[in-house]
Amino acid sequence: MNDNKHDDAVAVPTTGVVRDPVAAFGVGAMRIDDGVVVAEQQLGPRFADHRGLIDLPAYAVLFDHIGGIPYHRATDSPCMQARLVLSTVGRAGLTDHLTGTAQLLMHDAKVGVTEIRVGDGTEDFCVGTARNVAVGRAVPDDFDNAELAHDIPDAASLDAVLAQPIPDDLDGETIVAQIARGERDRGPLAELLNATIDVDGAPSNALRLVVDTEAWMGNMFGTMHGGVIGTIVGAACSLAGQQKARAGQEYRVGDLSVAYFRSPPVDGSRVIVDVEPLKVGRRIATFSTRMTGPDGTLLAVGAADIHFR
């Protein structure tokens, strides 16, 4: 099994057919403990970025998965997230076993706010909120609630080959350009998402990430799961942050906010995320994001802070 220290060992590729976002991201064991919704996530190299690290995007599916359930339990209404807000401190290890908790803070018949915390039992790595909105759509007749409970996968099943180490003398512009040209690995998480950098189509001063959708990315309604949207937007912001980093400089996605407008189909069509810098400082860079469909339909917008170290 790979760990946070890059090595030359050949990892065993991920096996098995990915069937849904929860299974794809090692999430399961959902339960109610004293009124609090709890689920677990087994991390693995599958979720590592182009640096071989776990960062905020890896938590988004767990975060979204449990984010609406407390509101649903309180109102008995199907709901979706209108916005996710995530903040991180520290960094989980490649093979950590995480626990996420979700608790309803306030609500009425139409909207709610849920607090979510993700950590390893000794410290939280990610905390934030989900804005829940009741929807008129009925749960599909063929949806099996047992699917929400998933068993936690074995860590070995989430193994993958990490991207090669990044030399300390390469600046961020060079690193991202190499990934775009295929000269440097994009990392297992980007491979899982079918995510590539589009240099030619990107607007001026923006980084563009494109994703070819697959059926496993869908929710119970057959459109893209909110956690997958959050992961894609977060991954795009991470690459934009890398682009602004100095040679040898470390960074993390410190804060991410995603507002959902429309969920795209997961039929093989493409979604596009454009990330523009708003302010780049020595310690924090702030970016705005737009996710659109192939016809230009606006699907989501977001903002992210990248913390440099």
From TrEMBL:
<dbReference type="Pfam" id="PF03061">
    <property type="entry name" value="4HBT"/>
</dbReference>
<keyword id="KW-0378">Hydrolase</keyword>
<dbReference type="InterPro" id="IPR006683">
    <property type="entry name" value="Thioestr_dom"/>
</dbReference>
<dbReference type="InterPro" id="IPR003736">
    <property type="entry name" value="PAAI_dom"/>
</dbReference>
<dbReference type="InterPro" id="IPR029069">
    <property type="entry name" value="HotDog_dom_sf"/>
</dbReference>
<protein>
    <recommendedName>
        <fullName>Thioesterase domain-containing protein</fullName>
    </recommendedName>
</protein>
<feature type="domain" description="Thioesterase">
    <location>
        <begin position="221"/>
        <end position="299"/>
    </location>
</feature>
